[in-house]
Design goal:
The protein is an alpha+beta fold. It is 43% helix and 18% strand. The longest helix has 21 residues. The two termini are 18 Å apart.
Length: 138
């Protein structure tokens, strides 16, 4: 299986690993088939994601996509983070092998899950904004 230099870099030197103790939104999502589990922590000030961290249990591609997803949303507005696609994560990593595309979907879903939790904590129904969060299909 061939991985791009960026995937290998984000796997070997993942950005934003860890927890945010007083996170404004926390989301966890897993894929039962592959065993990957991602937990995303967001710090939000106003409408801006000021910090994003993650903990991922999974393969190298799962770690790399989590790392890249946090990089893509940090400093961005919630609206921009909601527009994050798994294709954007894949492109930012210079591609993923077809059998690992599901990792990018998991990363996108982890972001949405954390934003959903953020809205829930604000007393706002997240579904009209974030959509339904389902475990990604393989």
């Amino acid at each position: 299986m061939q991985y791009s230099e960026k995937v290998l870099d984000h796997f070997s030197n993942p950005r934003n690993v860890g927890e945010i103790e007083d996170a404004d939104g926390v989301g966890e999502i897993g894929n039962a088939k592959c065993g990957d589990i991602m937990k995303m922590y967001l710090k939000i000030d106003g409408n801006i994601i000021t910090d994003a961290k993650f903990k991922t249990f999974g393969c190298g591609a799962a770690v790399a996509t989590s790392s890249m997803a946090t990089e893509l949303i940090k400093g961005k507005s919630i609206d921009d983070a909601l527009k994050l696609t798994n294709q954007a994560v894949v492109e930012a990593l210079d591609g993923l092998p077809p059998v690992k595309i599901h990792c990018s979907v998991l990363a996108k879903q982890a972001v949405r899950c954390a934003l959903s939790d953020y809205y829930t904590r604000q007393g706002i129904d997240p579904v009209p904004i974030v959509g339904e969060i389902r475990e990604p299909e393989e």
